[in-house]
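# nightly structure sweep
# worker-07 picked up a monomer target from the shared queue
# config: single-sequence mode, recycle default, output format = structure tokens
# input follows
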Amino acid sequence: MSIIETEAAPHVAHRDNHTHRDVNGGWLRPAVFGAMDGLVSNLALMTGVAGGAVAQQTIVITGLAGLAAGAFSMAAGEYTSVASQRELVEAELDIERRELRKHPVDEMEELAALYVARGVEPRLAREVAMQLSRDPEQALEIHAREELGIDPDDLPSPLVAAASSFGSFALGALLPVLPYLLGATALWPAVLLALAGLFACGALVARVTARSWWYSGLRQLALGGAAAAVTYALGSAFGAML
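# output follows
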């Protein structure tokens, strides 16, 4: 009994610890991209305008307009992109569904050949393919995973992607504007807050992707800082010429 319990314990521990994060939910990529894009683009936009020595009111209006325009643009783009991808996948699934209905034997042999190519003994591969092909929906799911590399029950949602992109972009784009809305009269508080936000976003993403938090944070900080510096220099140059 003790031997059985000793052997079972590692399996229980493995089962409890061997969990994975959701990588196909359709929210992480647009949320991360939206937050980064909101921070970098609105910071660069505001610093570029500020470089032209314009009035403070103009900088604030520019930042708010950039926030609204960017958030709606990102949401529309993500919705269209994910919806188009989902429609393409569903069209391919319809093709596979028709093939399973019209040519069940050929599809079963195709599935068996896939298992043989992965090292399964031919006779066993054919038996497994026969058993899996008895249920049409299960057969469709297996073929979709093996041939298309997708899970029909776990397709990304266009609405989730659009909402994630909209909210994260708006939140990121708000940071450079926030100091002005709270009474700041100079550009540097907005720049410092935005750069701090870039570092924090990079560090937060590292917790999800298992990368080094300081490396990810510094990478985003450097990219955002470079974009702000370039646009400020361009704004200063154009402002001097106009």
